[in-house]
Amino acid sequence: MSDLHSINEAINKRAGRKLLPSIGVSIFLVLLVWFSLSTFRIIFAGLVTLAVVLGIRELNRAFTAVGIHIPLWSLTTATVALSAATWFGGVSGLAVATAISFPCLLVLLLPRGVENFVKTASASALSLIYLPFLAGFLILLARPHNGLARVMTFVVLVGCNDTFAYLTGVLFGKHPLAPKISPKKTIEGLVGSLLFTVIGGSLAFHFIMDSDWWLGALAGLLTVFTATSGDLIESALKRDMAIKDMGNLLPGHGGIMDRLDSVLFAAPALWLALEIVRRAQDSGLL
Known about the structure:
The chain is mostly helical. It folds into two domains: 40-143, no CATH class; 146-286, no CATH class. It has helices spanning 2-15, 19-38, 41-65, 72-109, 117-142, 147-172, 187-207, 213-240, 256-282; strands spanning 176-178, 182-186. A two-stranded antiparallel ribbon has the order 1-2. The model has no long low-confidence stretch (mean pLDDT 89).
């Protein structure tokens, strides 16, 4: 038992995360997503909205610590509006709601005066696009009749990327991937995530999506690139603001933003890929 504890402590020290709580939280989140999609899919849209609202609050705290004050309640309202518009109006609803929300945010900043207007407006625009807009593609994945299969395939892809980048990085990592941004990420971890995400994507597309395995392999490649980029971008934000985690809501992960970072960038890519495949199949090209 002491040996197991020692191994766990060594992994925690190497990875910078507590392994067992992280696994427990991940399993809970997967079950929550599955339950929402297998009952009433609109519940999943509500969960995405809640996660984004919490993410906005974490981002607001981080910005406030460096003297940037984004309009929290305006962004929260915009989040609810974008999510509802996406669920009921699809990609057109998401686009129009974003186009309306952006100028509204700027107008609502005018009463604050001109001091730091550019800084605040830029941070507000980043928050709007980074969180509710990109998260809207999670809702788009869940909207069709096969939303459960699409989202669970996405969970497999992102899960493989995050899990095997973590494991191979801990076990074999020696060469930093981006030392100035995220010192614990390694090239070995990236190679591991690439290999296992391609395999996981192939299996998920074959068994869950009932589609060609090679499409899943391509989706795996796309997911590794986008999810890793999203992770590094959030790391760059945190390093610039001199914080380790955006929050502490999720044991072993940090805050909501620390869990959403890779998801937010991978979701639009997978949605677009599935749309291209669907239209190619409808036209007889596949």
